[in-house]
Amino acid sequence: MSTEPATGSSPVTVTPEAADQAVSLLESESMDTDIAGLRLFVQQGGCAGLSYGMRFDNEPEEDDAVVEMHGLRVFVDPASMNYIGGSTLDYEGGLQGAGFHVENPKATSQCGCGESFRT
Protein backbone atom coordinates (compact mmCIF):
# COMPACT_ATOMS: atom_id res chain seq x y z
CA MET A 1 0.00 0.00 0.00
CA SER A 2 1.36 3.40 -0.91
CA THR A 3 0.34 6.55 0.90
CA GLU A 4 0.48 9.76 -1.09
CA PRO A 5 1.25 13.05 0.64
CA ALA A 6 -1.52 15.59 1.07
CA THR A 7 0.52 18.14 -0.88
CA GLY A 8 2.45 17.98 -4.11
CA SER A 9 1.75 15.59 -6.96
CA SER A 10 -1.10 13.26 -6.07
CA PRO A 11 -2.83 10.54 -8.11
CA VAL A 12 -6.23 11.96 -7.10
CA THR A 13 -7.04 15.35 -5.62
CA VAL A 14 -9.94 15.85 -3.21
CA THR A 15 -11.64 19.21 -2.71
CA PRO A 16 -12.44 20.33 0.83
CA GLU A 17 -16.19 20.11 0.01
CA ALA A 18 -15.91 16.49 -1.15
CA ALA A 19 -13.82 15.55 1.89
CA ASP A 20 -16.27 17.18 4.31
CA GLN A 21 -19.25 15.36 2.77
CA ALA A 22 -17.49 11.98 2.65
CA VAL A 23 -16.12 12.22 6.20
CA SER A 24 -19.60 13.15 7.44
CA LEU A 25 -21.07 10.10 5.68
CA LEU A 26 -18.32 7.83 7.03
CA GLU A 27 -18.97 9.07 10.56
CA SER A 28 -22.73 8.56 10.15
CA GLU A 29 -21.93 4.91 9.33
CA SER A 30 -19.80 4.70 12.52
CA MET A 31 -16.66 4.02 10.47
CA ASP A 32 -13.23 4.94 11.85
CA THR A 33 -12.02 7.75 9.57
CA ASP A 34 -8.40 7.10 10.63
CA ILE A 35 -8.54 3.72 8.86
CA ALA A 36 -11.66 3.63 6.67
CA GLY A 37 -12.08 5.65 3.52
CA LEU A 38 -13.78 6.24 0.22
CA ARG A 39 -12.93 3.81 -2.58
CA LEU A 40 -12.92 5.47 -6.01
CA PHE A 41 -12.88 3.05 -8.93
CA VAL A 42 -13.67 2.60 -12.62
CA GLN A 43 -15.92 -0.12 -14.00
CA GLN A 44 -17.21 -1.16 -17.41
CA GLY A 45 -20.59 0.36 -18.18
CA GLY A 46 -22.54 3.42 -19.13
CA CYS A 47 -23.18 4.79 -22.61
CA ALA A 48 -19.57 5.92 -23.10
CA GLY A 49 -17.96 2.63 -21.99
CA LEU A 50 -16.57 3.31 -18.50
CA SER A 51 -18.20 4.64 -15.36
CA TYR A 52 -17.04 5.81 -11.96
CA GLY A 53 -17.88 3.94 -8.81
CA MET A 54 -17.57 4.89 -5.16
CA ARG A 55 -18.12 3.03 -1.93
CA PHE A 56 -16.87 3.11 1.62
CA ASP A 57 -14.29 0.52 2.70
CA ASN A 58 -13.13 -0.26 6.21
CA GLU A 59 -9.49 -0.33 5.09
CA PRO A 60 -7.41 -0.21 1.90
CA GLU A 61 -6.33 -3.28 -0.06
CA GLU A 62 -2.61 -4.10 -0.09
CA ASP A 63 -1.93 -2.70 -3.58
CA ASP A 64 -4.16 0.41 -3.32
CA ALA A 65 -2.87 3.93 -3.66
CA VAL A 66 -4.03 5.78 -0.56
CA VAL A 67 -4.55 9.53 -0.80
CA GLU A 68 -5.17 11.52 2.38
CA MET A 69 -6.55 15.03 1.96
CA HIS A 70 -8.63 17.24 4.24
CA GLY A 71 -9.19 14.39 6.71
CA LEU A 72 -10.42 11.90 4.08
CA ARG A 73 -8.66 8.75 2.95
CA VAL A 74 -9.30 7.77 -0.70
CA PHE A 75 -8.41 4.28 -1.94
CA VAL A 76 -7.72 3.62 -5.63
CA ASP A 77 -6.77 0.22 -7.06
CA PRO A 78 -3.96 0.08 -9.69
CA ALA A 79 -6.26 -0.74 -12.65
CA SER A 80 -8.55 2.20 -11.87
CA MET A 81 -5.58 4.51 -11.39
CA ASN A 82 -4.72 4.02 -15.08
CA TYR A 83 -8.02 5.75 -15.95
CA ILE A 84 -8.47 8.29 -13.15
CA GLY A 85 -4.95 9.26 -12.08
CA GLY A 86 -4.76 13.05 -11.99
CA SER A 87 -8.51 13.46 -11.43
CA THR A 88 -10.22 15.69 -8.89
CA LEU A 89 -13.04 14.47 -6.67
CA ASP A 90 -15.48 17.26 -5.93
CA TYR A 91 -18.89 17.60 -4.30
CA GLU A 92 -21.50 19.76 -5.97
CA GLY A 93 -24.79 20.87 -4.50
CA GLY A 94 -27.60 22.76 -6.11
CA LEU A 95 -31.06 22.72 -7.62
CA GLN A 96 -30.17 19.95 -10.08
CA GLY A 97 -29.21 17.67 -7.21
CA ALA A 98 -26.19 17.18 -5.03
CA GLY A 99 -23.48 14.60 -5.36
CA PHE A 100 -19.88 13.68 -5.90
CA HIS A 101 -18.33 14.49 -9.26
CA VAL A 102 -15.05 13.35 -10.81
CA GLU A 103 -13.20 15.84 -12.99
CA ASN A 104 -11.02 13.59 -15.13
CA PRO A 105 -8.40 15.12 -17.45
CA LYS A 106 -7.94 11.73 -19.17
CA ALA A 107 -11.58 11.55 -20.31
CA THR A 108 -11.79 12.29 -24.02
CA SER A 109 -15.60 12.21 -24.07
CA GLN A 110 -18.52 11.82 -21.67
CA CYS A 111 -22.10 10.75 -22.10
CA GLY A 112 -24.82 13.42 -21.85
CA CYS A 113 -25.55 12.74 -18.18
CA GLY A 114 -21.86 12.79 -17.24
CA GLU A 115 -22.04 9.37 -15.52
CA SER A 116 -19.76 7.56 -17.97
CA PHE A 117 -16.67 8.44 -19.99
CA ARG A 118 -14.15 7.30 -22.58
CA THR A 119 -10.37 7.72 -22.53
From TrEMBL:
PROSITE patterns: HESB. It holds the Pfam family Fe-S_biosyn. Residues 12-115 form the Core domain. It comes from the Archaea. SUPFAM superfamilies: HesB-like domain. NCBIfam families: iron-sulfur cluster assembly accessory protein. PANTHER family: IRON-SULFUR CLUSTER ASSEMBLY 2 HOMOLOG, MITOCHONDRIAL. This is HesB/IscA family protein. It comes from Haloferax namakaokahaiae. The lineage of its organism: Archaea, Methanobacteriati, Methanobacteriota, Stenosarchaea group, Halobacteria.
